[in-house]
Design goal:
With 654 residues, the chain is an alpha/beta fold. The protein contains 22 helices and 22 strands. A nine-stranded mixed beta sheet has the order 10-9-8-11-12-13-18-22-21, sandwiched between helices.
Amino acid sequence: MNGASDQARLSFFAEAGRALKGGVLGFSRAFIRLLDRYVGSHSVTRMAAILFIYSTELAAAFWLAYELRWDFSIPPVFKTQLLTLIAPVVICKLVVLNAHGQFRSILSYFGLADLGGVVVAMGFQSALMLVLWYISAVTAAPPRGVILMDFLLSVAFVSAFRVSLRVMRTWYISGQVRRGAVEHRIAIIGAGDAGEALAKDLLQRRGSGFFPVLFIDDDPKRIGRSVHGLQVYGPLEKLVKLASGARLNELVITLPDAPPKRIKEIIELGRQIGATTRIIPSFTQLASGDVKVERSRPVAIEDLLGRLPVNLDGEEIGRLVMGRVVLVTGAGGSIGSELCRQILSHEPAKLIMVDQAEIALFEIEQELTGTERGGCLAPLIADISDEGAVNALLVRLKPEIVFHAAAHKHVPLMERQPGEALKNNTLATADFARLCSRQGVGCFVFISTDKAINPSSVMGCSKRLAEMALLAAQNISGNRTVFLAVRFGNVLGSSGSVIPVFRRQIAQGGPVTVTHRDMTRYFMTIPEAVGLVLQAATLGKGGEIFILDMSEPVKIIDLARQMIELSGYKPDIDIEIKITGLRPGEKLFEELRHNDESHEPTTHPRIYKLKSSQGAKASDVWLADLRGLAAEGDPRTIKGAMKRYVPEYAPFED
């Protein structure tokens, strides 16, 4: 019987608590709606309301200061003084509050800046009263104790009112989780500034469905302490023990400089406890207060393959580009479009964007037109192999710097059509370089590839032949153009690269196809590669081939497994990994230099210059031979001729 009555009593108090909480939240929302509708949108009503509220608070503070000074028994002479001074003192306080912006601020938003304004305003008013006390008769100014207590009470009353409105707004916007919706219980990895800002935002927006439960941090100084009422645990490995009690659904990484190895460890721990892992993309956004839970994103493969940040000499790049006419071919492609973005940030006089793909060019034009420098764009549809159109373009627009990124780059496709690879990648590049030299272009930067090194594919060999043509063009009598080539490996997420293919295959349920278990590739991010291309352009004197530091190669099968796991599946259980065999022209691994080449360091630690033991050969004869064969179009004959001029080329035999 007693047990039943205790249960009923507990049930009653629980219901009463819920009702009270609902009533407080309901009142808060109604009050905030009223404040926004009638006080926030009508200037006259708003000013009247603020004047009334502040006047009442400040008058009460002044009156209470007298009462406290004389223990609620004010002598008649000072009561007369109180009644005489209360109106002018309140008016003066209102004037200084207005001067410090307190009438312009939104009442329910109150932070340190607003608190500082209130303190300074009330301090100024108190200083005036102290001056009055010092220079006047005793009964003409409040006593010093009253002045001090009035200052403290005025600050407290105004601040308390503003804080209460802020609390009400927080309750109003926090809301309740929708019926039937799942509330994700989150562990925040990292109790620094970024983690603190995220926790604060989530706690204020409970209705978002994301609820922070705890922090995990490896810093011994933070372990055992709390942030916004959330306990900080550590080290990271302790998360497995905490998971069952905390019922975690999600881990959010807020470590701004977390290396890929650490991210992998966090993902693995999340997998063990059945929680997904997300990452906050930009520490600067968090530090600036621009924290929104929707800004977090799933961990991407780019995070796991992350590389050390590239330090670029922005001043040197600026001197190369600023105020000059710059032309980019292949401007709609992955590399070309990023070149346009980065070049535009260095304020060229004109940026000529050339591509034969209309849609791709339209998209990058639309993206850049809306930027601050969008007025200097000149998007042009042109085929770089059309010599007449290209020459007319050079004569009319007179570019000073050219970045040549236009190319056929898909290895298996070019194996079936070697003539097209030769026309576009080699012959068109050689003709374009000749025209640029004739028109006095200052610098010509050719985007090459690591597949040009000891090539096994038509695409790689066509790029190697283009490099040879540029080196020959550098030595032509009367040439004043600086020709240089920049080689780099695969770029993450570029058109036709393996990562978009894997993403599509995973989305379709598999299988994920890998051509060989031992295949490796070098990877860079697109912005990183393009930044280093621009940096290399500042180093060129003419006739150089630069190669970018591509760090360590990555096994493609490991890449496939990681992408499957990041998508929430298990490799070879949920998603099959299928080995399909090497495709025509593919290598098991990419190389960094030819057998007759050696590295030389440059002034930039991530860029090397290649030095060849062979001199540049005149190109007229072999280019003419390849031009005739490309026109005939016989694949075997073309590959044989390419082998003749690039002895290290090992063509794929059908």
